């Protein structure tokens, strides 16, 4: 059973360009979460999505950031007009539906995408 | 507001010794979960151990055990018989009553040969 997949693993962008980060959840998981890890910090929640729905985007910056999880295909985190402060590791996690009786609702993390903005 | 505090930015331990990584948390929820993750230099997040707020016994997973003291709101990770491969960042995290994970700032553990 393949784990959570993220690509690319490393992404370099110049200021003002767009960054698109992809996340394929584990098989059977319909819930996706994005987290951001700034250098020397812990992960911070950004957004929680189900297929075709944004459930909670309280951690997303108000501008330039968007996320989607279409009916088909991976979840996408999109950052428009990147700035140096966007340089970070972006982690995706997936889970079965919370409180679905599947244990302690563990989120399974992908390997992360390291974004560097020049 | 929910918060996780890890007060040890860095720790050293001799190979084969035990080490305790501290974690305290703050929440007003009655139902919550506590997790520890390991992040090696390669960057991935590796799940180590989980403790539910209603679990009466401390969780154990191989060489990892979680010292859960609910009244003190602490969830320290104990690694027994440290190995060189244990050198990594360790993050304590809390899941509130729903789905959101809150992470601490991490402790960098270095195991010495």
Q: Would you list the SSEs of chain B in sequence order as H and E? A: EEEEEEEEEEEE
- Sheet with most strands of chain B: 6 strands, mixed
State mean pLDDT of chain B (0 to 100 scale). Answer: 93
What is the number of helices of chain A?
0
Oligomer: heterodimer
Number of strands of chain A: 11
Q: What percentage of the residues of chain A does DSSP assign to strands (E)?
A: over 45%
Instruction: Name the helicity range of chain B.
Output: under 10%
Detailed description of the structure:
The complex is a heterodimer of chains A (118) and B (113). With 118 residues, chain A is mostly beta strands. Chain A is built from no helices and 11 strands. In chain A, strands 2, 4, 5, 6, 9, 10 and 11 form a 7-stranded mixed β-sheet that branches. A 4-stranded antiparallel β-sheet of chain A has the order 1-3-8-7, with no helix packed on it. In chain A, β5 and β6 form a beta hairpin. Chain A is globular. The model of chain A has no long low-confidence stretch (mean pLDDT 91). Chain B is mostly beta strands. Helices cover 0% and strands 52% of the residues of chain B. In chain B, the strands form 3 sheets. In chain B, strands 2, 5, 6, 10, 11 and 12 form a 6-stranded mixed β-sheet that branches. In chain B, a hairpin with a 6-residue loop joins β5 (33-39) and β6. The radius of gyration of chain B is 13 Å and the shape is globular. The A-B interface holds A 31, 33, 35, 40-45, 48, 56, 89, 91, 93, 95, 98, 104-112, 114 and B 4, 33, 35, 37, 42-45, 47, 50, 52, 91, 93, 95, 98-106.
């Amino acid at each position: 059973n393949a784990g959570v997949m993220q690509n690319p693993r490393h992404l370099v962008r110049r200021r003002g360009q767009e960054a698109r980060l992809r996340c394929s959840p584990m098989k059977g998981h319909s819930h996706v979460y994005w987290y951001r890890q700034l250098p020397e910090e812990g992960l911070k929640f950004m957004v929680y999505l189900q297929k075709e729905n944004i459930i909670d985007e309280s951690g997303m910056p108000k501008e330039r950031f968007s996320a989607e999880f279409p009916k088909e295909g991976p979840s996408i985190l999109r950052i428009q007009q990147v700035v140096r402060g966007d340089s970070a590791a972006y982690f995706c996690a997936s889970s079965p539906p919370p409180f679905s009786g599947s244990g302690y609702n563990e989120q399974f993390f992908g390997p992360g995408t390291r974004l560097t903005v020049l | 507001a929910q918060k996780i505090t890890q007060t040890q930015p860095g720790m050293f331990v001799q190979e084969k010794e035990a080490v305790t990584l501290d974690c305290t948390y703050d929440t007003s929820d009655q139902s919550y979960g506590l997790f520890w993750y390991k992040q090696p230099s390669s960057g991935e997040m590796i799940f180590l151990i989980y403790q539910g707020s209603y679990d009466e016994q401390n969780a154990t997973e191989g060489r990892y055990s979680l010292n859960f003291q609910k009244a003190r709101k602490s969830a320290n990770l104990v690694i027994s018989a440290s190995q060189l491969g244990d050198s990594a960042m360790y993050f304590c995290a809390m899941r509130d009553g729903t789905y959101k994970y809150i992470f601490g700032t991490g402790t960098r553990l270095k195991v010495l040969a």
